[in-house]
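Supplementary Data S3. Sequence and structure tokens for construct A.
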Amino acid sequence: MTADIERAKPPLMATTQRHESHVRVRYRAPFALRCGALLIDYIVLALVLTFSIMIARLMGGGARLAGGTAETVGIVLTLVVAIGNFGVLAGLTGRSIGKLTTGLRIERIGGGAPGILRVLLRHFIGYPLSLIPFALGFLIAMVNSTGRALHDYLAGTVVVRGAVAPGPAPRQRRRR
């Protein structure tokens, strides 16, 4: 009698890591998670504006000082936070506050940090264009196979869920 002996195939992860040890794996960001990240960003801006207006009202005599210098300082502070969050932070790290909390990152199509100018184009020109008409520019990401919205196409970026640099294969326990 002869027995057919099958050779044990190496795990798929081990062969993939051997051949692609220098390639990072990117996962497309889900549309709902992208919406959540944007919502967190806008909540932060709304909180800054709300607290600055509350402080302005507490400092001055109530509603009759509406439009006073304290409220103007609050609006300017909100604009500074918006530019810092959507421009500088996202340009240098690829993450705004919302994307940081949801684990998303903005990258160039070829990989790497997008840069401040590209992110300013994406957020301050691309977002308003994506809102016209009826936010169809945002909805493109939902039906698109690459998950890119109109502002991503405009800036040459993609939002990814995470990047995993393949490391050594996990050790398997030996059975006795």
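Construct B, processed identically:
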Amino acid sequence: MPPILCAATSNPGKLRDFSVAADQDGIRIHPLPGLREIPAPDENQSTFEGNARLKAEYYSRFTPDMVLADDSGLEVDALGGAPGVRSARFADDAGYQGRGTTADLRPLTTDERNNLCLLERMSGIEQRAARYRCVLALARAGKVLLTAEGVVEGEIIRAPQGSGGFGYDPLFWLPRLHRTMAEISLEEKHTLSHRGRALRALLPDLRTLLPESPLK
């Protein structure tokens, strides 16, 4: 049976990214059972690694299996590294007061609000270098066993492009591919995304924890 890791997330985009990356190496990643009923911890750390470790330690107390937790986000050089660990809450933190509906009067999603807030903050800025960063932590029984990091460099464009992905993907331009992260396939995303890179960085040490695994 392929080794199974429990992911401490219900975000379908993250689960999809992890699953595509893990499938290449014979690992199955499932959502942590009962995750929605478990009170979420306060992600109060100032770094991606701090939050990833916090979540992995916390959620691994609810299952005998190993738990994989991540903290990831966007760092924009011109904004001093923001939104950083607050990427998912960027618009709310900034008190964004822009339009609240789409052209068809549908309320904006959190991702759409965050993207509009970022574009507003980047207005008039020419230097648009940015990166996605992901830190993974693997824990069991409240103890962190492994951590790993993945980074992908890019730029922030001036209007969204593409309908795939999630988060800031429609604004995250990949110069080498001349497309945004929202315009590439899941297979391409596996080869270069911050989550795929972090998971691949974790695999060599994960093999040592799974001596009977087909990863050997």
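DSSP finds six helices and seven strands in the chain. The chain has a mean pLDDT of 90.
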